[in-house]
Amino acid sequence: MKKFVLLALFVTTCTFAFSNIIKIKVTDFAFKAKTVNAHVGDTIQWVWKVGIHTTTSTTIPAGASAWNKPMDSAHRKFTYILRVAGTYNYQCNFHFMFGMVGKIIASAALAPGFNNITIADNDSKALLTWKTASSKDVNYFSIQRSTDGDNFTEIAKVRADFSNQYKFTDNQNVNSKYVYYQVELIDTRGNQELSTIQMYTQKGAAQKLITSISPNPVSNPGHLMLQFNADKEGTLLVQLYNQSGTFVTQTQMSASVGLNNGHFHLGNLTPGTYYIVCTLGETKEKHTIIVK
Asked: Which residue, of 172, 205, 217, 286, is most buried by count of CB atoms within 10 Å of its CB?
């Protein structure tokens, strides 16, 4: 009996020792990061920053527990332990129609054992490195790339070797300042394990603040979705003016390093031509908006 108790204590201790706490910011009609790779046993912690929101599960793996929790000034944190492998989709019940949704992909740790990848600059190219504890049962690694941190495409396969140390350089040119990578391990039985998502900043990329405005033209009542780049944490100020230059309204969007998503509620506007002035730090851009 004593041996059994000691073994149970050891297993429990190991489980907590190797688990991670992964934080997701809840702010400005967005979950940041929108997509997260994790492992069974990891703890997800939603941290409120601004607004009145919820974190509410929509589709989850069989056997996992659903959740529906408020996220506001009175409910600043919510934690959830991933106990089942699979994909967890969730949303803010108030703002999902504006794209406030998130996804957590929980992998079961495979025998070869790997998690994080690191990215370095190699002559203005992304150099990915990672290790495994063992090469046993490894079939290959799928190298996957994304320009938004959410939608990944396989760009190469790396076969297993006995060194347990791997490198891959992405020699393709990508028209994006921030490029996101993940590595998926596929074992000989077809099981899969995802690394964490890592971001690479292209040094030669154009210094563009706003990368996408939609929809444009806008219908009343106006809701504008913005994608924008940020080199550091901060706040994007978005000011709306009519064609004659008269100020109409403004909003602020929190910025995290990388590609960001924000929402601007314009309200009911007289049809015509408007423009927005977007300011982040020392960077300022002006864009034309059409209201139908």
From this structure: 205
Stretch (H or E) spanning 266: strand 258-267
Residue 7 lies in a domain: no
Dist CA 143 CA 168 (whole Å): 8
Task: Give the CA angle between residues 92, 95, 98 to the nearest 5°.
Answer: 125
Q: CB–CB of 185/193 below 8 Å?
A: yes
- 184 CB neighbour count, 10 Å cutoff: 19
In a domain, 67, yes or no: yes
Domain-embedded: residue 156: yes
pTM (two decimals): 0.87
Residue 83 lies in a domain: yes
Tell me the C-alpha to C-alpha distance, in Å, between residue 172 and each of 25, 129, 150, 201, 288: 32, 17, 19, 14, 33
- Which tokens hold the place of 211? 């990368």
| Burial category of 160 from C-beta neighbours within 10 Å (exposed 0-12, middle 13-18, buried 19 and up) | buried
Amino acid at 153: T
pLDDT in tens, 43-80: 999 999 999 999 999 999 999 999 999 999 999 999 99
Q: Which of 195, 280, 265, 259 shows the shortest CA–CA distance to 32?
A: 259
